[in-house]
Amino acid sequence: MLPVAVGLDGVSPPPSLPSPTQNAPSGAHEPLPQQVEAALWRGTELGGPVAEVLSSGFPGLDAVLPGGGWPCGSVTEVLVPQFSVVELRLLTPVIAALTRAGRAVALVGPPLDPHAPGMRHDCIDERHLVWSDVDAPRDRLWSTEQLVKSKKCGAIVTWLPMVRPEQIRRLQVLASHCPGPVFLCRPEVAARDSSAAPLRLLARYETDWQVAIDVLKRKGPPLEDRLHLLSLPGGVNTIMTPRLRYYSRLRVRPSHVVVSHPAAAVRERSEVFTAPQP
């Protein structure tokens, strides 16, 4: 007769315990449903399109954005050193595509009045452009929330220089039911603040009609490289010569230029009078 093992509490264990693999569900190794797989994001990979995305109009930028474009039903922050210089150059392609398709685009509190003739050169149909002229931060935030709740806009671009993190979190929750993207234009110093926006970009204007983009936050691994996007104003591309395309080179003085002695004396004298006193 074989000996029977007895536990410390005096109770004999069951004759055989099932292995952990026997307790696993039968479909543990089956692929996930397509909707669940699309919503699942692994931190080492670039996030997929949970909702619809719109092309930014820049192939280089689409390649690094989750889903390949601006996410709809979500808040995207565009941080700039100075308002009215670069943010619309970045967003003009998607605004033009939406207005040409007959979808409304709302601008909330732009620092400068929209210029309709310039927008026509960028192929923007101003008939589908909604301009909300508000100045107070409270009014801008309220107008943005009402437009998001209406679910009637193909995209919303709002300038919010002063907004708290909890207010951005509220906008992100409301934007989840919005059919288009919601862009928040904020100052560059806001990059140090926490934000519930899933996508954050820092945009700067550079020479030779380029826009420099730093992706500060996205659903994916950090992007160390800076993007340089060509953004020519509408109507300029047709009259642009190769020489003016790289206008930064025009400011370099050729080595064969000789400065006359009188001109050099005048320049030296002006530098002396303008030099700061110790």
Structural class: alpha/beta
Task: For the largest sheet, list the strands in their spatial order.
Answer: 5-4-6-7-3-8-9-10
Q: What is the CATH domain class?
A: Alpha Beta
Q: Fraction of residues in helices?
A: 25-40%
**What name goes with the CATH superfamily?**
P-loop containing nucleotide triphosphate hydrolases
| Domain module count | 1
Strand content: 15-25%
* Poorly predicted tracts of residues: 271-276
Average pLDDT for all residues: 82
**The biggest beta sheet, please?**
8 strands, mixed
CATH fold-level name: Rossmann fold
What's the order of the H and E elements?
A: HHEHEEHEHEHEHEEEEHH
The first-to-last residue Cα distance is 107 Å
Rg calc = 29 Å
Supply the number of helical segments: 9
Which CATH architecture? 3-Layer(aba) Sandwich
Identify the overall geometry: globular
Count of extended strands: 10
Please give a structural write-up:
The chain is an alpha/beta fold. It has one domain: 3-Layer(aba) Sandwich (Rossmann fold). The protein is built from nine helices and ten strands. It has helices spanning 20-23, 34-39, 59-62, 87-100, 116-121, 137-150, 165-175, 242-245, 261-274, and strands at residues 53-54, 70-71, 75-80, 104-108, 129-132, 153-159, 182-187, 199-206, 210-217, 227-230. The strands form two sheets. Strands 5-4-6-7-3-8-9-10 form an eight-stranded mixed β-sheet, with helices on both faces. Helix 5 links the parallel strand 4 (104-108) and strand 5 (129-132). It is globular and about 55 Å long. 25% of the residues are buried. Residues 271-276 have low confidence and may be disordered.
